[in-house]
Specification:
globular; 9 strands; alpha/beta; 3-stranded antiparallel beta sheet; 283 residues; pantoate-beta-alanine ligase activity; Pantoate_ligase_C
Length: 283
């Protein structure tokens, strides 16, 4: 049976633990999470272990990236299961601060990202989101001081925002994206999938099918506008309330009009019942 990771809840305790790893010439990878861990998170941990000799996993449900109408209070929290999964993967340290440790009384500083944070995708529907993400990730990086940090590609705009912020602020962390892990039927693994009813769970696979259909049409030479319209129609016809179904440049997230515009990515966000799902694939 694998030993449980060291659990730290204050910044001084975390820094002592990381310093102890550094004294042994360790390289350190950070995997930021909000808990409710699934196989997608486990894949991030395994990639982290390939990129560094020691791994820190943070578990913090960050209130600043939720609006009052979103699911902060209901967001799944599965602490015992999370720790069991991390122990099985031989994670070294779990950073599990409370809100008061991350945002103590008098906290008054925010990071306000631009560039890919203003691409007209998630920011159009959740204008508060990337400021909350950038601030908490900036804090995590300065608290943990990792060599590398691993983020899933499922939250693709977030990955681009964090990469840009890290470069712009000279934070000295190599940000690495990890491919999206999917269920057998193509649905991207997500902590929010538990909100789906059995019927909604079956319908949710349409997101992946619509993206792959549009990507295939674009690769075959069909006009971008018609290929993307077909995918959006598939999503809407299945009963989703579609927020966006967009083809963007994979690095800048700028809109594209031609297959020659650079590496391409299809990104989608849609609501099914009370659950909002996001996904993306390379073209």
């Amino acid at each position: 049976m694998s030993p449980s990771p060291l659990i730290t809840r204050t910044v001084p305790a975390l820094r002592r633990a990381v310093d102890n790893l550094r004294k042994r010439k360790a390289t350190v990878a950070l995997v930021p999470t909000m808990g409710a861990l699934h196989d997608g998170h486990v894949s991030l941990v395994r990639l982290a272990k390939r990129r560094a000799s020691r791994v820190v996993v943070s578990i913090f449900v960050n209130p600043t990236q939720f609006s009052p109408s979103e699911d902060f209070g209901a967001y799944p929290r599965t602490w015992k299961s999370d720790i069991a999964k991390l122990a099985a993967e031989d994670v070294d340290i779990v950073w599990h601060p409370g809100v008061e440790a991350m945002y103590p009384e008098g906290f008054a500083t925010r990071i306000v990202p631009e560039g890919p944070a203003l691409a007209g995708l998630e920011d159009r529907f959740r204008p508060h989101f990337f400021g909350g993400v950038a601030t908490v990730v900036g804090k995590l990086f300065t608290q943990c001081r990792p060599d590398v940090a691993i983020f899933g590609e499922k939250d693709f705009q977030q990955l681009r925002v964090v990469t840009q912020m890290t470069r712009d602020l000279d934070l000295g962390v190599k940000v690495i994206g990890s491919r999206t892990v999917r269920e057998r039927d193509g649905l991207a693994m997500s902590s929010r999938n538990v909100y789906l009813s059995p019927t909604e769970r079956q319908t949710a696979t349409v997101l992946y099918r619509a993206m792959t259909d549009s990507a295939g049409r674009i690769r075959a030479g069909e006009a971008i506008a018609s290929a993307m319209a077909r995918g959006a129609e598939m999503v809407a016809t299945a009963g989703f309330a579609l927020d966006y179904f967009e083809l963007r440049h994979a690095e800048t997230l700028a809109p594209v009009t031609s297959r020659k515009d650079g590496p391409l990515r299809i990104l989608v966000a849609a609501r099914l019942g009370t659950t909002r799902l996001i996904d993306n694939i390379a073209v």
